[in-house]
Amino acid sequence: MKILLTGANGYVGRRLLPELLEQGHEVVCCVRDKLRLGLDAVTLARVTVWEVDFLKTPVLDSCPEGIDVAYFLIHSMSSSIKKFDEMEATSAHNFNSYMDIMKVNQVIYLSGIVNDPNLSKHMRSRSNVEQILQKGKYNTTVLKAGIIVGSGSSSFEIIRDLCEKLPIMITPKWVLTKSQPIAIRDVIQYLTGVINREDCFNQSFDIGGPNVITYKQMMQLYAKTRGIKLAIITIPVFTPKLSSYWLYFVTSTSYKLAMNLVDSMKMEVICSDNRLQKMLGIKPISYVDAIKLAFKKIEQNLVISSWKDSLASSRFKENLSAYIQVPTYGCLKDSKKLQLTNPDLALENIWTIGGEKGWYYGNWMWQLRGSIDKIFGGVGMRRGRTSPTHLDNGDALDFWRVLLADKKEKRLLLFAEMRVPGEAWLEFRIDKDNILHQIATFRPTGIPGRLYWYAMIPFHFFIFDGMLKNIANSNN
Questions:
Q1: Do 276 and 205 form a contact (C-beta atoms < 8 A)?
Q2: Contacts of 201 (CB under 8 A, 6+ apart)
Q3: Which residues neighbour 106 within 8 Å (Cβ) at sequence distance 6 or greater?
């Protein structure tokens, strides 16, 4: 069966793709930017890539042919605080235009549980998208999930951040709201189980795990599972804005996502029926088992995808390709090079930079810069990296974004997502003569940008020089 997978480089899409291929389906991966699909050569050879932006006017002569089933996994919650519902509606309308041309038989939409009568803006948007898709000329299957628990999921990573960093937690009252979390493994089973099932056509199903628990209980169970001592004190005076700032400063979430999450966390997210569970014979795993599975993947360095790698919360307004050509005109540079005696060691050090390993020199200064960035509304350093050893185009790397990770060509190019008065690139490259090049490029915005660069020169002198030498020689 030929399947169209939108959001193929998103958190769920990256998990769903290998399952579809394993089941023998032919998959067309739908992405806005083909450079950040992040697939290995073997997997890439097994799929077709269709570059399309559903927020833009449809180009109907570019549609792939012969599509039987399509997944709608497009969400814009972390892109905007005020307009994400308009963006999601636009994407759904344009998606329908493409599907009409393709004559798709079934569309599977992963939505959210909307059984609470007082819906948040986020959940109203999901409900509106469902109504738009149901007007399409195809059979619709809607799966409505609550909190998805898995290595790299936004909900899991937020709970992880809170519990690991705050032994004593003063929380807003919405932590007493009930939810029905579901393991990502079970979500994938449901998504694949409904493919081409006529008894699932034009139907909506709630999907959830076996536990109905509050957010407070979710954190307590996480702490117990991880052997962490945790005290939670709930107070009623947290406003939505204060709650958003609380999540933003303590966790790795963006402020936009924090605002939209807080708005939704006040609503109960509980399944109203278990029809699909019985129809497909799925036995969902418990919340605690989902946590254990997530950490098993983390400990084995097998995290396939992370919400932090999404471009939705980044500085990018265009595709990655718009930034790969590092500019020269009007730019300021710090260029250093060093002859290598062990190029293989240096390459491995480049590919493991950032995250828990740090930046090889002055890590406390990098952390300080990240804290300052967080104060002024930037991404800070808390995003880390998805894998400690592997990098893909488009990955988040602390407060950088990976533009190009080509290990064969021995080149890593990063773009700064911290708040700076301009645009900044950082490049590592090993040439054919085994010379390591480290180039920082800054394109300032007016006088503030130039003042910023010159103010940072003393720090650059020590940090960049020390980083270059340690990358070349460090065995850690």
A1: yes
A2: 106, 139, 140, 141
A3: 68, 69, 70, 138, 139, 140, 141, 195, 196, 201
Mean pLDDT of 274-287: 93
Contact 187, 125 (CB under 8 A): no
pLDDT (0 to 100) of residue 302: 54
- Quote the tokens at residue 353: 């930079």
Instruction: Show the tokens assigned to 276.
Output: 């699909």
The Cα–Cα gap between 425 and 441 comes to 5
Give the residue from 202, 211, 186, 208 showing the smallest Cα distance to 272: 208
CA distance 335 to 391: 23
> Above 90 in pLDDT, residue 286?
yes
If residue 415 lies in a helix (H) or strand (E), which one and from where to where?
Answer: strand 411-416
Instruction: Pull the structure tokens for residue 475.
Output: 């065995």
pLDDT at 322: 66
Q: What is the dihedral of CA 13, 16, 21, 25, to 10 degrees?
A: -90
The pLDDT of residue 20: 95
Long-range (24+ apart) CB contacts under 8 A made by 238-246 are 238/171, 238/172, 238/173, 242/172, 243/172, 243/174, 246/172
Q: CA dihedral defined by 367, 462, 334, 401, rounded to 10 degrees? A: -20
Residue of 79, 216, 192 whose CA lies nearest to 143: 192
Amino acid sitting at position 344 = D
Query: pLDDT by residue (tens digit) across 236-246?
Result: 766 666 666 66
Is residue 158 within 8 A of residue 262, CB to CB? The reply is no
pLDDT interval class at 381 (50, 70, 90):
confident
pLDDT (mean) for 161-167: 82
Written as one letter, the residue type at 26 is E
| Contacts of 396 by beta carbon, 8 Å cutoff, 6+ apart | 306, 308, 309, 314, 379, 383, 384, 385, 386, 402, 417
Q: What percent of the chain has pLDDT over 70?
A: 85
